[in-house]
Amino acid sequence: MSASDLRNDLLKIIGENPGGHQDTTVRETFATKLQEYSKAEGADSSDVIFAIGKAVFGVELESSPPAKKAKTENGHAAKPADLPIVDFDYMKAFMKEVFLSYGVSPERAETCSDVLIEADKRGIDSHGLGRLKPIYCDRMDNGILYPDRPIEIVQESETTALVDGNLGLGLYIGPHCMQMAIDKAKKFGVGFVACRNSTHYGIAGYYATMATDQGCIGLTGTNARPSIAPTFGVEPMLGTNPLTWGIPSSDDFPFVIDCATSVNQRGKIEKYARDGVETPRGAVIDDQGVERTDTEGILKDMVLGKCALTPLGGAGDKMGGYKGYGWATTVELLCTAIQSGPWGEDICGLDRATGKPKPMPLGHFFLAIDIEKLCPVDTFKKNAGVFLKALRESRKAPNGPGRIWTAGEPENDARTERTGQGGMKVPVPLQNNMVALRDTRPGLKEKYEKLPFE
Q1: Chain segment 165-196, per-residue pLDDT in tens
Q2: Among candidates 291, 300, 355, 294, which has minimal Cα distance to 17?
Q3: How far separated are the first and last CA of the chain, in Å rounded?
Q4: What whole-number distance in Å separates Cα of residue 39 and Cα of residue 309?
Q5: How far apart are CA 98 and CA 91, in angstroms?
Q6: What is the structure's pLDDT at 179?
Q7: Of the candidates 155, 201, 147, 212, which has an alpha carbon nearest to the alpha carbon of residue 175?
Q8: CB distance 244 to 395 below 8 Å
C-alpha cells in the first residue's frame, strides 16, 4: 500500500474509534498500520500521526536501524541526568557534515548548522538538533525543499528588498535576508527585507540577535502551516506565526522576545499527553466551538482537522484573545501580502488528495534599525539596561519562584549552564537520528565511525 493509503487507514481508525486507545484490538491494529506507514516511501516522519501513536496509543515504533536504549555503565536505562553530553563544536560539525552530504555549499552548510546549534545553546531544544532529521533532512529526501538554490532579488531600493528563496533551506535564506536588512540600516538608518518561497528558518530569535550584535534593533516574523483559529472561529487559518524583537542592552545578553502568537504549540500538547495531564482550558477549540481539555482526544482531533489552537489570550475575547489573533494576522499579512505568497491549506505541507508531502513555500520579513542614526548605541544600551534591571528587581510575588526574568534571560541562563557542563545532553531519540544519518548519508560513516554515546 502507498503511504497515502496507509495514512488514510490510520485516520479512519482514529475517526471511527473515539475510545480506541482503550481497546486492545484497536491498539494492535493501529500499531501494525503505523509501523507499515513509517516504512512506506514518502511517509513524513514529522507527521503528527506518529506523535498520536506514541502519546495516545502507546506505540513505540521499531526504527531502522533498531532504536537503542541509552544505558549507564551498570546496564540500567539512562535517566535525563545520565544522558551523554556532547560538545557544541562537535555537534555543529556533525550537522554541517550532514548538510554537506546533501549538496549544500560549505558556506551555507556552516550557516545552517550555526542556526541549529544556537537553538540548542539557548535551551530551545525543539529547534536545534531535534529538527535536523525530521524537518530538514526528511523534507530534502521527500523533494519538498532543496539543499542549495539561488537567492534572487526580485525588487530592491536603498532601504528595502524583496527576495525569492526558490524553496531552498530557510536556514541559510534567513541569515542572508537579515544581513541585507542590517547592511541597509547601516547605510540609511532602516532596512526592511521581505522574502517569498522560503522554508522553515529555525529559531526567529537568531535573526533578532544578528541585529543586536551589530548595534541594531531587529524584528522578524514568519508564517507557518495553519493551526490557529480566528477569534470566534473554529477553523485553523493562521500559523503559530512568531513576532520576534531583539533590542540591545547593557546586560550580558540582549532583550529578545521570541514566541509564537498562539497560547500553545502542538509540541506542548504532545508533552501534556506524555505527562498524563489535561490541556489548559482556552488553549484549544474544536469544530463545535468547545474549549477542549482532553489532551488525548485533542491530539487525535488535530490530525483530523477537528481542533485548532487558539491565539494568545485564548478562545473568545474574555482574556483578550483578539489581541493574539490580531498579532498572528499581522505576521501572516507581512509574510504574504508583499510576497503574493500562499497561506492556509496551500502551506499545510500535505497534498490532501494523495496524502503525499508537498512543498511549504513560507514567507518571512526582516527589519533592522541602526541605533547610531538616532543616538549613541552605548547610551541606548545603558538606558535599556537600567529599565530591564528595574523590572528584575521589582517586588516579587510571595508565592512565586523568587525571581523575575526579562526576555532573553532564560536563554542566557541555559547557555551558561550548558557551556559549564561541556555541551548539550542528547536524548535517545536524537541519538537514534544521528546514528541513522551517520549510517545512511554518504561520507559520514568514515568520519564518524563511533559517535560519543556509542
Answers
A1: 999 999 999 999 999 999 999 999 999 999 99
A2: 300
A3: 36
A4: 30
A5: 11
A6: 98
A7: 201
A8: no
Residue 55 has pLDDT above 80, yes or no: no
Contact 138, 44 (CB under 8 A): yes
Is the bond into 80 cis (omega within 30 degrees of 0)? no
Q: What type of residue is 114?
A: D
CB 174 within 8 A of CB 114: no
Q: Which of 365, 413, 338 shows the shortest CA–CA distance to 242?
A: 365
CA torsion angle 121 451 447 435 (round to 10): -90
More confident position, 259 or 65? 259
Structural Rg of the chain based on CA atoms: 22
Among 407, 388, 12, 45, residue whose Cα is nearest residue 208: 407
| Separation of alpha carbons 70 and 261, rounded Å | 36
Q: Are 296 and 304 in contact (CB under 8 A)?
A: no
DSSP state of 408: T
Q: Per the structure block, which three cell numbers stand in for 417?
A: 549552564
Confidence at residue 272, expressed as pLDDT on a 0 to 100 scale:
87
Task: Give strand pairing partners of 152.
Answer: 164
Number of neighbours of residue 386 by Cβ within 10 angstroms: 11
CA 194 to centroid of chain Cα atoms: 20
Q: Tell whether the torsion through CA atoms of 146, 150, 151 and 153 is positive or negative.
A: negative
Cα–Cα distance between 131 and 116 in angstroms, integer? 8
The contacts of residue 306 (CB under 8 Å, 6+ apart) are 286, 287
Q: How confident is the model at residue 62 (pLDDT cuts 50, 70, 90)?
A: low
- Cell, residue 265: 504549540
CA distance 402 to 237: 39
Looking at the DSSP bridge assignments, the partners of residue 77 are: 71
CA angle 258, 90, 171 (to 5 degrees): 40
> What is the per-residue pLDDT for 356?
86
65: preceding bond cis by omega (within 30 degrees): yes
Phi, psi of 175 (to 5 degrees): -60, -35
